[in-house]
C-alpha cells in the first residue's frame, strides 16, 4: 500500500528548557508558521558535541505545520533559538485525521 503525503509536517526541536520552548512556540503560532506546538519538558538528551559525549535535560517541541511553511519556520527557529546549532527535524505526515490535517493547513496560511 502506497502512503501519500498529506502536505503536513511535524517538526522536532529541542530547547534548553520549557520556558524557552514556550516562548518559541508562542511566536511560531502567532506568526502562523505553526498550527500547534506541544512543549514536553524534562527530556534527557545524550549527544556528541565538540568531540565529547554530553548529557542534558531539555524540552522537546513537537510542531505541526504545513509543508510549504517549513523553510520559513526553520529560519525563524534559528533566529529565536539560543543554541548555536538547534535541532530542526522535519517529518512528513503520511496520514491522519482529515479534519485535523485540514485545520493545520488553515491555521498556517500566511
Question: Roughly what fraction of the amino acids lie in strands?
Answer: 35-45%
CATH A-level architecture: 2-Layer Sandwich
- CATH class placement: Alpha Beta
Quote the average pLDDT.
95
Shape: globular
Runs with pLDDT <50, length 5+? none
Structural account:
- The protein is α+β, with helices and mostly antiparallel strands and 110 residues long.
- It has a single domain (15-107), classed as Alpha-Beta Plaits (2-Layer Sandwich), CATH 3.30.70.120.
- Helices cover 31% and strands 37% of the residues.
- The protein has 3 helices and 4 strands; from the N terminus they run E-H-E-E-H-E-H.
- The protein has helices at residues 18-30, 70-80, 98-107, and strands spanning 8-15, 36-49, 52-66, 89-92.
- It is globular, with a radius of gyration of 15 Å.
Q: What would you say about this model in short?
A:
The protein is α+β, with helices and mostly antiparallel strands. The chain has helices at 18-30, 70-80, 98-107, and strands at 8-15, 36-49, 52-66, 89-92. The relative contact order is 0.31.
Reconstruct the topology from this structure.
Layout: E1 8-15, H1 18-30, E2 36-49, E3 52-66, H2 70-80, E4 89-92, H3 98-107
Antiparallel strand pairs: 1-3, 1-4, 2-3
Descriptive key words:
Alpha-Beta Plaits, four-stranded antiparallel beta sheet, 3 helices
Amino acid at each position: 500500500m502506497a502512503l501519500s503525503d498529506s502536505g503536513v509536517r511535524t517538526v522536532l526541536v529541542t530547547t534548553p528548557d520549557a520556558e524557552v520552548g514556550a516562548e518559541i512556540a508562542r511566536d511560531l503560532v502567532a506568526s502562523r508558521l505553526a498550527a500547534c506546538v506541544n512543549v514536553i519538558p524534562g527530556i534527557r538528551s545524550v549527544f556528541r558535541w565538540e568531540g565529547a559525549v554530553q548529557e542534558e535535560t531539555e524540552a522537546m517541541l513537537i510542531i505541526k505545520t504545513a509543508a510549504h511553511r517549513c523553510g520559513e519556520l526553520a529560519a525563524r527557529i534559528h533566529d529565536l533559538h539560543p543554541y548555536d546549532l538547534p535541532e530542526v527535524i522535519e517529518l512528513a505526515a503520511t496520514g491522519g485525521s482529515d479534519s485535523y490535517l485540514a485545520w493545520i493547513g488553515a491555521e498556517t496560511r500566511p
